[in-house]
Amino acid sequence: MGLLTAAAIAAGAGGAVVAAPLVLAGIGFTAGGIVAGSYAAGMMSAAAVANGGAVAAGTTVAVLQSAGVVGLSGTATAAVAGAGGTLGWLTAAAAALI
């Protein structure tokens, strides 16, 4: 593995971990709850309609709201870092082909 690849993996992993809370807040999953009129509000509305008026525990909306309130767990942080690192590696591999 070259230096560029290692740097891309590290940047992807670190960038993803830093960006995840910002993205969650940006789409409406905040510490204060789901922001009215946001993408998250639309997701919550759809989930509530599908569940007869309530959002069930363990659904995507519930998990994302939990992450918006308390942050990512260690497992979720590792998963996000892994996904970001993979994207960094793919970027470096694509750049090497050019």
From TrEMBL:
GO biological process per UniProt: intrinsic apoptotic signaling pathway; release of cytochrome c from mitochondria
Subcellular location, principal: membrane
InterPro entries: IFI6/IFI27-like, IFI6/IFI27-like_sf
Signal peptide location: none
Localization terms from the record: Membrane
The organism's place on the tree of life at top rank: Eukaryota
Keywords: Membrane, Transmembrane, Transmembrane helix
GO CC entries: mitochondrial membrane
UniProt topology in membrane: Multi-pass membrane protein
Family note: Belongs to the IFI6/IFI27 family.
The protein's name in its UniProt record: Interferon alpha-inducible protein 27-like protein 2A
Organism name: Alosa alosa (allis shad)
Lineage per the UniProt record: Eukaryota, Metazoa, Chordata, Craniata, Vertebrata
